[in-house]
Write a structure and sequence with these properties.
Shape: globular
Structural class: mainly alpha
Distance between the termini: 34 Å
């Protein structure tokens, strides 16, 4: 909740490339521990370091990548490019599962580390920076003065990011859509496997089948379907259709009356996966070029708040209705409740007017900090 908006601001001020290198590099260290030793002490150390790594990298890699893409891609093509980014992520997830299935166990972590190291090395060699870093000021200040100025600057930047989102109808609306969608979807994700096992006796093979089905379908929908239809209907229609699909997904799981129904419900994942790229596109279109990182990071922070709150309610509610003391027979009642959040998100999405976002070259009047300028070379790209 704190780090995502902060990294978004720093990506606007210090550059996209340094922040991407930082966030990606932190993912290497936890798995390096397990590659060296898998004793009990190293496993505990792995979880401790992975927690710190996730705080820095989870979600921020996407936010900064989307901001970088917005620097070099024109408005009309961004939704398709964002869909390709998320689609390639889905493809890598499926391929990673296949790789883990066939690799000998003793080689899994070594191969993982090699792949993780490849990412920052590739970026360092080939990724071009698109933002001029804000120049440092007052180099002769005392240490205490420097800390005070950094904290004051972060506070002003955080306040400015909030002002940018709140003052824009499109950004304010999409932040509400993101909050309620994440509130419902993260709650379902946190209890789904437990619910399916308790209600229908699902085992790991059935879980794997569902995940693979959704993964393969989402690759097609993001890499092929969305780029073809986005120019015809626009981001708002795609977002509303994806949210409607997420509602059907939740209700079918909640009212599931037979073991085959969850497979039908999972098939809607092929459509609701488009919520992410369409959301990125709407945020990017409604933000100026100097505020891409701030807007993406701030709304990602809003999603993190929802991810924190949702399991606090969903876990006990699911356990209650799966137990013998439930007030009535509806094992998926908690998932039905989560679908209400998606309905609220759909209502806010219908009110969006993403076409009214500011021009990418128009400075934001709320900006009270020295903001970085895009390189002139961006125009040629």
């Amino acid at each position: 909740m704190v780090v995502l908006p902060l990294l978004g601001q720093l990506a606007d001020e210090c550059g996209r490339k340094p922040m991407l290198l930082l966030t990606l590099s932190t993912t290497i260290f936890p798995f390096a521990l397990l590659a060296m030793n898998q004793s009990k002490e190293f496993v505990y150390a792995y979880y401790a370091i992975r927690t710190v790594s996730y705080i820095i990298s989870q979600g921020s890699i996407f936010c900064i990548s989307v901001a970088y893409a917005a620097d070099v891609i024109e408005d009309s093509k961004r939704a398709a490019v964002f869909s390709w980014i998320t689609g390639l992520f889905s493809a890598s997830h499926v391929l990673g599962n296949v790789l883990a299935r066939f690799l000998p166990e003793k080689y899994i972590f070594h191969v993982s580390i090699a792949l993780l190291i490849f990412c920052p090395v590739y970026m360092q060699l080939f990724l071009r920076e698109t933002v001029n870093a804000t120049p440092k000021q007052d180099p002769d200040s005392s240490s205490f003065g420097k800390v005070a100025k950094v904290l004051h600057k972060r506070y002003k930047s955080m306040r400015n990011a909030a002002t940018i989102v709140v003052s824009s109808p499109s950004l304010r609306g999409i932040s509400l859509v993101s909050f309620f969608y994440e509130l419902g979807m993260s709650g379902i994700s946190s209890v789904l496997l437990y619910y399916l096992k308790a209600a229908f006796g699902y085992n790991k093979n059935q879980f794997s089948e569902i995940l693979m089905m959704v993964g393969i379908g989402s690759i097609v929908s993001q890499l092929v379907v969305l780029p073809l239809v986005i120019t015809l209907v626009g981001e708002k229609v795609i977002l509303c259709a994806a949210l409607l699909s997420s509602i059907a997904y939740a209700l079918l799981y909640g009212f599931a009356w037979a073991p085959w129904v969850p497979y039908l419900s999972a098939s809607f994942g092929v459509i609701y996966i488009l919520v992410k790229p369409s959301t990125y596109a709407i945020i990017s279109k409604a933000s100026t070029s100097a505020d891409q990182g701030k807007a993406q990071g701030f709304i990602a922070g809003v999603q993190s708040i929802a991810s924190l709150l949702s399991p606090l309610v969903m876990s006990p509610l699911t356990s209650w209705f799966l137990s013998g003391s439930a007030p009535f027979d509806c094992k998926g009642f908690s998932i039905i409740c989560a679908s209400i959040c998606m309905v609220i998100a759909l209502c806010y999405a219908c009110l969006l007017k993403p076409e009214e976002g500011p021009s990418q070259d128009t400075p934001n009047p709320a900006e009270d900090l020295e903001v970085p300028l895009l390189r002139d070379a961006r125009c040629s790209s």
